[in-house]
Amino acid sequence: MENNRLVVGQINGIFGVQGWVKIFSHTDPRENIFRYSPWLIEVGGEWQSIKVEDFKVQQGGKSLVAKLKGLDDRDLAREYMGSTIAIDKSQLQRDQSDYLWIDLIDCEVRNQEGVVFGKVVNLVETGAHDVLRVEGEHSTLIPFVLDTFIKQVDVAQKTILVDWQIDEESE
């Protein structure tokens, strides 16, 4: 079950007296977190499946609040503060060409000449574009720009083909 969970946010506060909670969302755009229900919420080390009854986007889209089934007062909602929000990956509607950042972690990266760079250990959001951080014999950063530097992603085979060279002078 743990491998099927995808963390999408966190409960980071309470809102009002009727059990509403403030939400920090990892989705882009942030309000997409409300496209998924039920949520899997970790409370006291235990995962619970809880339905989202209602939600609001406030302050020009800067603040998210939700009403969760069974949370009907401020005191009970307080117990959920700091809790991780996840969804089951089966809730994602994607076709075979879609993948998530988490799907790219541990993919082997090689270039068109067959040189293996290592495996993806992280992705970094830079604003202009995302960057793969690859660890192997050398540490390499590769811009995640499809069709320019990233030629093929095969999540099933855990491989990424790139148009990139190892710059041994900068090592």
Protein model, in words:
There is one protein chain. With 171 residues, this protein is mainly beta. It has two domains: 2-91, RimM (Elongation Factor Tu (Ef-tu), domain 3), CATH 2.40.30.60; 101-165, PRC-barrel domain (SH3 type barrels, Roll). Helix content is 5%, strand content 46%. It has two helices and 13 strands; from the N terminus they run ββββββαβαββββββ. The protein has helices at 74-78, 101-104; strands spanning 5-15, 20-25, 39-43, 46-50, 52-58, 63-68, 84-88, 108-111, 116-125, 130-135, 139-143, 150-154, 159-162. The protein has a seven-stranded antiparallel sheet with strand order 4-3-7-1-2-6-5. It has a six-stranded mixed sheet with strand order 11-10-9-8-13-12, with no helix packed on it.
Which labels suit this protein?
SH3 type barrels, mainly beta, elongated, Elongation Factor Tu (Ef-tu), domain 3, about 170 residues, 2 domains
CATH architecture of the largest domain: Beta Barrel
How many domains is the backbone divided into? 2
Major sheet: arrangement of strands: 4-3-7-1-2-6-5
Q: What about the largest sheet?
A: 7 strands, antiparallel
Identify the overall geometry.
Answer: elongated
Strand content: over 45%
CATH topology of the largest domain: Elongation Factor Tu (Ef-tu), domain 3
State the name of the first-level CATH class of the largest domain: Mainly Beta
Helix coverage percent: under 10%
Which regions contain 5 or more consecutive residues with pLDDT less than 50? Answer: none
**Termini, distance in Å?**
40 Å
The H-and-E topology, N to C, reads as EEEEEEHEHEEEEEE
Note the total helix count. Answer: 2
